[in-house]
Amino acid sequence: MNRKTLVLAAAMGLLAPVLAACGDTESGSGDGDAIVVGTTDRFTASEEEGLAPLDPAWAYDVGTWNILRQTVQTLMVQPRGDGEPVPDAAESCGFTDAGNERYSCTLRDGLQFADGDPITAADVKYSIDRALSLKGDSGVFALLSTVDTVETQGDREVIFHLKAADATFPYKLSTPVAGIVNKDDYAQDKLREGFEVDGSGPYTMESEVKGGALVRATFTKNPSYKGALQVNNDKVELVAYDNADLMGEALESGDIDVMTRSMSPEQIQKLANATDGDIELVESPGLEIRYLAFNTKAEPVKDKAVRQAMAQLINRDELVAKVYGSQAEPLFSLVPAGVTGHSNAFFNKYGDANVVKARELLEDAGVDTPVKLTLHYTTDHYGPATKTEFEQLSKQLNDSGLFRTDIEGTSWDKFRKAGQDGKYDVYGMGWFPDFPDADNFLSPFLAEDNFLNSPYVNKAVRKDLIPQSRRQADRLNASKSFTEIQDIVADDVPVLPLWQGKQYLAARDDITGTAYALNSSSTLQLWELGRGVSG
């Protein structure tokens, strides 16, 4: 059959897919033949990155979360096609007060871990309390920062008493940091090191480790799973490749059935233009964003005029066109287009790229030029085009005559911690949302215990605007607070948004369920995959 690009309708508009992959109407019953999925995500256990990459109390990147979502069950889960979370380990959940400060869940009857141990409300309380008390260096615990106390009533009811109103709390209970773990496997006072994972999710997992890295994860359908997800296969293998070219070769040769993030722009373009063959390209809207992060206490960028000048100089349209083409869109706020509360705050303040205006900003602040900076990026986490992207950014800044920049690439296992430790003045990061709400594109960067460990503090944002937005159960009513926050960010520039990306997955045409295998938040939903009849 012909190769074709399959486009899903805008996820945040909650519309149905307009096209599905060949055979997607089939159930994909799961015949025992493992579906093999390739990824370029790296899973390492190092001193720099942390020795417990798969502990729910530490893990906080899209790759490790995609492993945990298959194996460690949460009270709530994101439904297929996005939308508000639905009960998973829970039978029902909801706020029990008018102020969104008391949230109660009732567990499903007969819930158990994959090893047969029963799951009670006490296990949920243990898991949440553990994540909060361990305070992993990754900062993931901050997702649960509004939890004051966790109460249990009997074996099946869990009650969360919150410090303040938090309408986003159901979403937070769908993230891996809120995963339910067994105290026999996860000690209360320390993280679980290595690559073993145990839970009550749709799969159990076996790890193949070489040289301190997870190279293959085998997910086997968990017969004890009770939850909202329909598992359409018996086994999936996730294989980590060193680069996108090797992953692409494996798909073409039939060594893998599916390839996911991150494909190169060239691979995507080639598949999109192909008119024959047995490989499908699935394109869907995405909420992935890329941005520059600043250590606002570092001398070269301490003066916000320097950061404002960079915001005034960077030409996002040119950057996207030269590096990503139609696979990304310029972004002028931390909150991407398609999410309630989005505004083009940076464009409203700076307009088009303008050297004259940038020079005026620096001159008015008494900043000597050219400003010397190193732009840091990671070589192996956000895809093969990252280096080219930073070459273009550096060129744009240098061509203005106002900056003299160079670039430096570092592997993710060292890069992530160096950024958190303040060793970089300016560095490139990506964000894949924990859940599709504007709060999750703002609080992780601006709240206390933010995951960047940024020294930037704005009291109005932390004390007033974020709490105000969380009191609004109707997220449209939170838009005013979100707009004010985005305007403050555009003025202070603690971070500088660059672009918003689409999501891509490629699969052999006998694989079903590909339309839902990757959602807008880059969550890999392996349970959707099955085998059907080729084209």
Describe the structure.
With 535 residues, the chain is of the alpha+beta class. Helices cover 25% and strands 22% of the residues. The protein has 14 helices and 22 strands. The strands form 5 sheets. The protein has an 8-stranded mixed sheet with strand order 1-13-20-12-2-11-10-9, sandwiched between helices. Strand 7 and strand 8 form a beta hairpin. Helix 7 runs antiparallel to helix 10.
Summarize the structure in short.
The chain has 535 residues and is of the alpha+beta class. It has helices at residues 62-71, 121-134, 169-172, 244-253, 265-273, 304-313, 316-323, 345-350, 355-364, 386-399, 412-420, 443-446, 459-470, 479-492; strands spanning 5-7, 35-39, 76-77, 86-87, 90-95, 102-107, 147-153, 157-162, 203-210, 213-221, 235-240, 258-259, 279-284, 289-294, 328-330, 371-378, 403-410, 426-431, 495-501, 503-508, 511-512, 530-531. Residues 1-20 form the signal peptide.
Radius of gyration: 23 Å
The parts where pLDDT drops under 50 for at least 5 residues are 1-31
Q: Which geometry do the CA atoms define? A: globular
Strand portion: 15-25%
Number of contiguous helices? 14
Total E-strand runs: 22
Let me know the average pLDDT.
91
Largest sheet: 8 strands, mixed
Helix percent reads 25-40%
| Main sheet: strand order | 1-13-20-12-2-11-10-9
Structural class: alpha+beta
Cα end-to-end separation: 6 Å
